Structure formats: C-alpha cells, structure tokens
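Researcher: Let's walk through a ligand-bound prediction step by step. First, I give you the protein sequence. Second, the SMILES string for zinc ion. Third, you return the three-dimensional complex as structure tokens. Ready?
Model: Ready.
Researcher: Here are steps one and two:
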Amino acid sequence: MQKAAGFYQNAILFGWDGIARHLVKKGLAYGYLPNLKTLISTGTFVAIDVLHTTDSKAGWAQILTGYDPEITGVFSNNNYQVIPKGYTIFERLHKFYDSDNFIAAGIIGRSIEAILPSYGSVQEKNLLICCLPNDEATCVRALEFLNQHRDKQFFLFVHFEETDLAAHIFGDGSRAQFASLLATEARTGQIITKLKQLGLYENSLVYITSDHGFDIGKRTHHNAPCVFLISKDHNLRRQGEQADVAPTIMNRLGLDTDKIQPPLSGQPLLKMTPPVSRSVYPIAKGAKLLDKVF
Ligand SMILES: [Zn+2]
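Model: Step three, the predicted complex:
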C-alpha cells in the first residue's frame, strides 16, 4: 500500500519492562546511555503517566492497544480477560496494510499471555516469538528478524524484561537494576545499529517505552506510574498517558486513528490536542471495579 508523504515505512517499539522515568533521566544525566542520547538529540523524550494498575499486563495491554482497561478487560496481572479480537496494534496494522509484504511481529521474553492476553487472535496472522530465555536471546532474535525481513514493511515490538527482574530481585535503586538498564540500552543500540547497517533507519521509526516503574527503594511496583516515551520522531508535541502510545505509532504509519472503532482511549502525541473527556464504556465482563485505579 502506498502511503502519503510524511509517513514512515517501518516502526520498532522497544519495551523496557519496569523502568521509571527518573531512572532514565539519571542514566542520561550521568552520560551512561549513549544510544538514547543520540536518539533524543534528533527526536523526543516525553513523560508518560500510567492511569491504571502499575503492572505488566495492564501496562502492555494498554500500550499495545491504545485502550483503557474497561475496553480491553485487562485491569491487572490477576484481573484480566482476553482482549477482544482485532484490538491490538499488530492486528490493526495487519488489517490496514492487508499485504503479504507487511509483517507485524513481537519478540518477547515472556509468554504472550503474560503481557498481552489475546490468545489466538494476535498469533493468527502476526509473527510472535515468545518465551525467550533471556534478553540476549531476545536481542539476537530481533537482529535475525531484521536480516530476514529487511525487504518487507514491518512493525516490530521487542520486549526486554531483565530490567524488571533485576529490580524484583535486588530492589529499586540497586546497582543490579542500573546495570540491567545499561545492558538493555546497549542491546537496543545494537538493534538500531543493525537498522542503520541495513539501510532501513531513515524510513523507520524507533520508540522506547515502559509498562511501569518501581516503588522507590522497594522490590514491588504497586504505585509506580511515571514512565516515558522516547522517540526518534521529533514530531511528538506533548506528554501523555500510556493509551497515547499505540495511536501515535499507528498514526505515523499512516492509519487514520480517528476512524478506529471502538474509538481509541488515547490520542496521538503529534498534536497539542487538549485532553478529551473520556466516553463512558461498559465495564468489561468479569472486571472488578476495585481494580480501576485512576
Ligand atoms: Zn514486575
């Protein structure tokens, strides 16, 4: 499909699990995140707030759909239902491009159910490589993906999880957590370098975000709502919330996000749109009101 000028061909979304905004700022301030620094020098770093339970399922489900928990049914790691068919960014892009030349893929350390409880519907047409043993393996598979699909148009989600594991084991603020951030940033840099080597960088968007932070000084993330969106795209105009991530990416890949049904909860971060008042949706079947944390 031919898109109008100004849109990008490909996009990679990196998911750094459990990384708070302040930790990234600290890394940048100390000069430890060179790949991020380069990305931000020509792109944007915006604050993203989490307006629901701060855990992985609730976070990634919103990031990868653009919908509130009331619509996806994913309120938390323990309170969730299968996301309605067709609602994920993978399925939306696939439907939009409707071509064998387009591939939407996820390379994920955990099972797909652990971050995006969609069971059959996402796997049907999209390439998902899950349950990888560690982030190094995730990185290797992402590099292989680019080599293999360099001639196709793609959306790729790469999920690194060791940042979350390090903080659960050693605690927020630990050296292990920071070391894990540095390793994740270096792996992200390797994949960006590969994009450049393959001549794909100019035509590809690069985004980095996280599902939640950590409770300060603790090994938990009960109330850790300050994350970020870093982008090669210098057109991001405002800070936002997690529901804005998918609309932003889909919009930059050519979709008219205003026409998506049911209407997305988030808005692209490309315009200085004032926050819209949210429509009221029926509570998803099986969802508990108590889990609605706003
Ligand atoms: Zn966690």
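Researcher: And what stands out?
Model: Residues 52 and 251 are 24 Å apart (CA to CA). The first helix runs from residue 21 to 29.
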